[in-house]
Specification:
Layout lengths: L8 H9 L6 E5 L7 E2 L3 E6 L4 E3 L2 E4 L4 E12 L8 E9 L6 E5 L3 E3 L7 E4 L4 E6 L5 E2 L13 E10 L5 E10 L4 E4 L3 E2 L7 E4 L3 E3 L6 E9 L5 E3 L7 E3 L8 E10 L2 E6 L16 E5 L10 E7 L5 E6 L5 E3 L3 E3 L6 E11 L5 E3 L4 E6 L9 E8 L2 E7 L6 E10 L5 E6 L3 E5 L7 E9 L8 E5 L5 E3 L4 E3 L4 E4 L7 E8 L6 E6 L5 E3 L3 E3 L3 E3 L3 E11 L6 E2 L4 E7 L1
Parallel strand pairs: 2-7, 9-14, 40-49
Antiparallel strand pairs: 1-3, 3-5, 4-6, 6-7, 8-10, 11-12, 11-13, 13-14, 15-18, 16-17, 17-21, 19-20, 19-22, 22-23, 24-25, 25-28, 26-27, 26-29, 29-30, 29-31, 32-33, 33-36, 34-35, 34-37, 37-38, 39-41, 41-44, 42-43, 42-47, 45-46, 47-48, 47-49
């Protein structure tokens, strides 16, 4: 505010004689409502009759909390009036308080109730404001009453000094939430060279969007130290040769404006080298050796699943093939089939079987010689055949086909020996036998055909015959028998009556009209049944074979 003008004695008299305007000191701009100048100003001095020097005075500092003054001397150019001094008193402070926010979040923060600390360079009235919500008195430290939401926030501190200068400090930051890992990533696949491992990104929740996820594969030594693998950032990873002997893990980084969260998977087992075991082929099915078939089919498999095959016949070249492999129109001679497996590893390396599997066989279409010297001997419900076999190395045996003449039904047998006793036949029926040599290739010789009839071992009289005189009893000789036991019974109601038991050494016996056996016996009219057994050794040994047969005749 301007001070009152100092007036000397003469000036008073002159002032009393003068009735014009009073001297003045006018500042521009004027002081504020607190009476302080807070910016440079100019004072204009004026006098109604005198001339003031300086006419104007400027002030632009320094700050001074104590009252200061500017003066001007006013004189009368004519010299009639004494000079006067005009004085302008004032307080000047053009410097606002320095406010500094010294603590609290900046950039991005996850703290929803942050604390801010601040300093003010001089005694001032301090107020704080959050997000244009209006200033209110505050002190350091300051903290919001309620938790802050996601997004941008601004904290301001205003300090007003006694001169009315205002200093303001502002801090703008962002509140955001980090994502939370619910489950780590999981690696799927075999820890082996050239194998493909796969992973997911793990399971996450929350986080201020947008949340970005990035994957990096790492190789870890046995001490647990892990190194990021350059360029391995996808969900799939092909294991390198350099990874052998290490463990592989996945690191997933979740990133948003709040920062990064890193989660690691469990490491795999120790990476093993690529399996370079050569595949091995096994031939499962091949033609018989020898064979008379001009076709051939081979079935095979490899020890390593997923292998492909190459086949070769005789002197030909290996060519791609699949199982089964078939050939036709082959020449009748020896052949060799070879097959090898090829396994392509996951790194593209071809592993070729070094020793192909081989099958050798001979195609033989020449028929063998026919059986020779076929003989047939009839027996009771049986026929016995003998023959000679050609002395050829590849003979498999003799195939015998038997047909009962005039009746359906066929019996086919393969014999490796040169004898057949065909039993269970019908006595008196006619049978046809066709004998053909078969070799190991399956070729058949021309047939040797013979016919025969099995017959009752009790030759005569026929079973059920009627005789008028004592008959000659005759039967088939039994091999190695030295005698026979013949028994004759008369058929009657109740038990049959035994009439005779004798031991002829030949396979026949002539009955008589009368004989003695346990008393006198007579061949009277009636029905008789007779039995014959073979005997071996001497009669006293009582060694008998199976019953040769039994038959009935009637004496009239």
């Amino acid at each position: 505010m301007p001070r009152s003008m100092a007036v000397g004695p003469l000036t008073v008299a002159a002032w009393l004689a003068f009735t014009g305007p009073a001297p003045a000191q006018v500042p521009d701009p004027r002081p504020n409502e607190r009476g302080w100048h807070t910016e440079p100003f100019t004072v204009t001095f004026s006098h109604p009759v005198l001339t003031c020097d300086p006419f104007q005075a400027n002030y632009n500092g320094p700050d001074d909390p104590n009252p200061a003054s500017l003066t001007s001397t006013c004189t009368d150019p004519s010299g009639q009036l004494p000079p006067e001094t005009l004085t302008y008193q004032f307080k000047y402070d053009a410097t606002a308080p320095e406010v500094m926010i010294t603590g609290g979040p900046s950039g991005v923060s996850t703290d929803r109730t942050p604390s801010f600390s601040f300093t003010v360079s001089e005694e001032s009235t301090v107020q704080c404001e959050l997000d244009a919500g209006g200033y209110s008195p505050c002190t350091s430290p300051w903290q919001p009453t309620n938790p802050l939401g996601d997004g941008s926030h601004t904290f301001s501190v205003s300090a007003t000094d006694s001169a009315g200068n205002v200093g303001i400090a502002t801090r703008t930051w962002e509140v955001a939430e980090l994502p939370t890992s619910v489950g780590p990533p999981v690696i799927v696949g075999a820890a082996a060279e050239a194998e493909t491992l796969s992973t997911d990104e793990g399971t996450w929740s929350g986080g201020t969007p947008p949340v970005g996820l990035s994957i990096s594969w790492q190789a870890c030594n046995m001490s647990g130290d892990c190194t990021t693998i350059d360029g391995a950032t996808g969900t799939d990873y092909v294991v390198r040769p350099a990874d052998v002997g290490q463990r592989i893990r996945v690191q997933v980084r979740a990133r948003n404006i709040a920062g990064d969260v890193i989660v690691n998977s469990a490491p795999t087992d120790v990476v093993v080298p690529l399996d370079r075991t050569l595949p091995q082929t096994t031939i499962i099915q091949q033609p018989p050796n020898p064979t008379n078939k001009r076709t051939a089919s081979f079935t095979f498999e490899a020890s390593r699943p997923g292998s492909t095959f190459e086949c070769k016949l005789d002197a030909g070249a290996f060519a791609a093939c699949v199982s089964p492999k078939a050939y036709s129109a082959l020449a009748a001679r020896a052949h060799t089939f070879q097959v090898r497996a090829i396994f392509t590893a996951r790194n593209g390396e071809r592993l070729v079987e070094d020793t192909p599997a081989a099958a050798r066989w001979t195609i033989d279409t020449r028929p063998p010689p026919a059986p020779g010297s076929v003989e047939l001997r009839p027996g009771d419900q049986r026929l016995t055949l003998t023959w000679t076999v050609a002395r050829v190395a590849d003979i498999r045996g003799t195939r015998v086909v038997r047909v009962r003449v005039g009746r359906p039904g066929t019996l086919v047998r393969l014999f490796t020996r040169s004898r057949l006793t065909d039993t269970g036949l019908r006595n008196g029926a006619r049978y046809r036998y066709a004998l053909r040599t078969i070799d190991k290739a399956g070729n058949l010789s021309p047939a040797r055909v013979v016919y025969g009839r099995p017959r009752d071992p009790l030759v005569e009289p026929r079973d059920g015959a009627i005789v008028s005189k004592p008959p000659l009893l005759r039967w088939l000789a039994r091999a190695h028998a030295t005698y026979y036991n013949l028994q004759l019974f008369r058929v009657r109601p109740g038990p049959d009556l035994k009439m005779l038991s004798t031991w002829p050494i030949r396979p026949r016996y002539q009955l008589r009209q009368r004989w003695f056996y346990r008393g006198a016996r007579v061949l009277r009219p009636g029905m008789y049944r007779w039995y014959v057994w073979p005997g071996f050794g001497s009669i006293g040994d009582n060694r008998y074979g199976r019953l040769i047969g039994t038959s009935v005749f009637t004496k009239r």
